């Protein structure tokens, strides 16, 4: 009898353990880390690197607490999405060299690797430019007020901005 009880208890524990582990095993890395930190990720952060998703989420939360509207207008992009933007950029600007100032091909875009967020509205971007370094978030290009990346350690200083994406 005792052996049966122990076996049943062990089985119950095993079931409980697998139930507890299963959801985390299926969550993407950013969500898993956010759950661990007790943070729910901000809208628009799906597919970003865990570091960027969490840094942006914390900035977004602080912006809201300060009464500032801030949202992601474009985050992670698939290679196909970036390829379409690149083709459109070449059509709009007349040449790959001219297009590169505004859009990069899939192999070079930090949106494809989940390492960039475009934000809006302009007032929110201005707030993020002034405050984002608290989480390591920096505006990267002079010609794109909306584009931010993790570019420095939190609380240090953002590196000098590049003129545009073509100077990368
Ligand atoms: Zn961007």
Automatic annotation (TrEMBL):
Domain D-alanyl-D-alanine carboxypeptidase-like core: 50-124
SUPFAM superfamilies membership: Hedgehog/DD-peptidase
GO MF annotations in UniProt: peptidase activity
UniProt xrefs under Gene3D superfamilies: 3.30.1380.10
Keywords carried by this UniProt record: Signal
Superkingdom classification of source: Bacteria
Signal peptide boundaries: 1-27
Transmembrane stretches, start-end: none
CDD domains, sorted: Peptidase_M15_like
GO biological process, one term: proteolysis
Annotated InterPro entries: VanY-like_core_dom (IPR003709), Zn_M74/Hedgehog-like (IPR009045)
Pfam family name, one: VanY
Keyword Signal: yes
Protein name as catalogued: D-alanyl-D-alanine carboxypeptidase-like core domain-containing protein
Organism, as annotated: Gordonia sihwensis NBRC 108236
């Amino acid at each position: 009898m005792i052996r049966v009880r122990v076996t049943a208890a062990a089985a119950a524990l095993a079931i409980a353990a697998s139930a507890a582990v299963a959801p985390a095993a299926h969550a993407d890395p950013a969500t898993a880390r956010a759950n661990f930190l007790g943070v729910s990720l901000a809208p628009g952060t799906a597919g970003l690197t865990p570091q960027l998703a969490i840094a942006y989420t914390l900035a977004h939360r602080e912006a809201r607490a300060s009464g500032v509207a801030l949202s992601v207008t474009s985050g992670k992009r698939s290679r196909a999405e970036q390829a379409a933007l690149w083709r459109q950029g070449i059509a709009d600007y007349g040449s790959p060299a001219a297009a590169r100032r505004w859009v990069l091909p899939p192999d070079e875009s930090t949106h494809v690797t989940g390492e960039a967020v475009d934000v809006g509205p302009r007032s929110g971007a201005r707030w993020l430019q002034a405050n984002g370094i608290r989480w390591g978030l920096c505006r990267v290009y002079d010609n794109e007020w909306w584009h931010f990346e993790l570019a420095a350690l939190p609380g240090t200083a953002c590196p000098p901005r590049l003129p545009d994406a073509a100077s990368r």
